[in-house]
Amino acid sequence: MTEDNEACTQAAVHPVPHAGPGLYLLLLREAASTHVGTEVSSQELEYKYGNLSEGVCKPGYAAAKMATIYPKFTKLAPMFLDRNFKRLSKVNNYLPPFGFKTQERIIDSILTITKNYGLGEELDSLSCKRCIVVGNGGILSNKSLGSRIDEYDVVVRLNEALVKGYGKDVGTKTTIRITYPEGAIQNPENYEQDSLFVLSAFKPLDFKWLRQMVYKEKMRGTDGFWKSVAQSVPREPTEMRILNPYFIQEAAFQFIGLPFNNGLMGKGNIPTLGTVAITMALHNCDEVAVAGFGYDMNKPYAPLHYYESVKMSAIKESWTHNISKEKEFLRKLVKANVIKDLTNGI
Ligand SMILES: CC(=O)N[C@H]1[C@H]([C@H](O)[C@H](O)CO)O[C@](OP(=O)(O)OC[C@H]2O[C@@H](n3ccc(N)nc3=O)[C@H](O)[C@@H]2O)(C(=O)O)C[C@@H]1O
Ligand SMILES: CC(=O)N[C@@H]1[C@@H](O)[C@H](O[C@@H]2O[C@H](CO)[C@H](O)[C@H](O)[C@H]2O)[C@@H](CO)O[C@H]1O
Fold first, then answer.
1. Which pLDDT band, with edges at 50, 70 and 90, does 2 fall under?
2. 35 touches 47 (CB < 8 A)
3. Cα 42 vs. chain centroid, distance in angstroms?
4. What is the spatial distance between Cα 58 and Cα 45, in angstroms, rounded to a whole number?
5. Which of 132, 133, 134, 136 should be mutated for ligand 1, with most atoms under 8 A from CB?
6. How far apart, in Å, do the first and last CA atoms of the chain sit?
7. What was the ipTM of the complex prediction?
8. Cα 10 to the chain's mean position, in Å?
9. Helix (H, G, I), strand (E, B), or coil: what is residue 341?
10. pLDDT surpassing 90 at residue 222
11. What angle do CA 154, 275, 192 make, to 5 degrees?
């Protein structure tokens, strides 16, 4: 730790006399961001944040908690690729899905036309952001969590999870929808208003597909996809983004501990999209909640998703994910209070 960091931490633990709540919050924020990466005890954090009243957003909380269980965790990692993406050293040398090597030109051409690389002015300037990642699990049904979900500053939704008709249980707000070609909503009428369409790319063809969607070109054939894909996305280019592939890499190798396989996609080394989204949120939000997570193998007949009747047992067919190892990781996050699970399915 540098002297500067130490000074900052000291100030945060023993607030400067006469400092207003604004300054105190600022110091806390500094302490949380500089401290990440060094070991901070959980008790120390409770002490630091304990003074904030219930319901007040705690700056840097999720990242600081994360660093108590993953000491190497550092908050800095942009949510989306921007024009400087080639400088991202952790991903520029890996092929998709763990990086973007070989896809630089196509990404450049996508980013030229999307022209926006953040969440938008209002959200980007918030000093403390609360995010919720809504998983697609059937566990969301009949819990009437919609209004609680809508209270978050950032609501992340995944793949083809419908909002229309399910507002009471899942909310009506969508800030970003993260997906890939095979997972994307196919019926243009099912897209909600005002959300950012975010590609999480798993293979080179996914970038090619996004370029066609962004440039509003007709798709030619569906060869190379593992299921049919959306032919168009009813979003302006300025509402489209590319998720930083670092979150797939970090979730797989640092957090869940999936096989490295020379850095290539292989059997059981891909995190589910929900876990990728949680990883993104830990880097970009101050507080992180989740809902709709949980694969319960003891209930093979329970609904897998809240919006359709596929059964839980269907997940057994997945050869890409390691559901039990991933569950261990998510449980660790809940237990250490890094994330709050509104549906208690993890
Ligand atoms: C057959 C198949 O490949 N199914 C996968 C489907 C499928 O591609 C899409 O539904 C689109 O058709 O997508 C996945 O995910 P899916 O779209 O089902 O759900 C999004 C994320 O929510 C979490 N989830 C979901 C259901 C459940 N009972 N418990 C949960 O915790 C997971 O974190 C999940 O990632 C995916 O992309 O990860 C995971 C699934 O493995
Ligand atoms: C190389 C290739 O396309 N592999 C396909 C996998 O991506 C795909 O897994 C699916 O891959 C998706 C990304 O494209 C998500 O991670 C999803 O959760 C996962 O189930 C499976 C589905 O059964 O089919 C293979 O042929």
1. very low
2. no
3. 23
4. 11
5. 136
6. 35
7. 0.98
8. 32
9. strand
10. no
11. 40
Structure confidence by residue, pLDDT tens digits, 101-124: 999 999 999 999 999 999 999 999
The H-or-E segment that residue 168 falls in is helix 167-170
Distance CA 186, CA 43 (A): 48
DSSP helix/strand/coil, 177:
strand
Q: Whose CA is nearest to atom 25 of ligand 2?
A: 226
Q: If you search the block for the tokens 């032919």, which residue do you land on?
A: 231
Q: Is 44 within 8 Å of 116 (Cβ atoms)?
A: no
With a 6 A CB cut-off, is 158 part of the ligand 1 pocket? yes
Q: Which residues contact 72 (CB under 8 A, 6 or more apart)?
A: 37, 254
Q: How far apart are CA 341 and CA 346, in angstroms?
A: 7
Of the candidates 217, 219, 218, 216, which has an alpha carbon nearest to the alpha carbon of residue 239? 216
C-alpha span between 67 and 75 (Å, rounded): 9
Question: To the nearest whole number, what is the mean pLDDT of the chain?
Answer: 89
Task: State residue 55's pLDDT score.
Answer: 81
The whole-angstrom separation of Cα 29 and Cα 22 is: 11
With a Cβ cut-off of 6 Å, ligand 2 is lined by 180, 182, 202-203, 226, 270, 272, 318, 320
Phi, psi angles (nearest 5°) of residue 253: -95, -40
Position of tokens 């093979």?
300
Compute the C-alpha angle 312/231/223, nearest 5°.
75
- Tell me how far the alpha carbon of residue 208 is from its chain's centroid: 23
Atom number in ligand 2 closest to CA 224 = 3
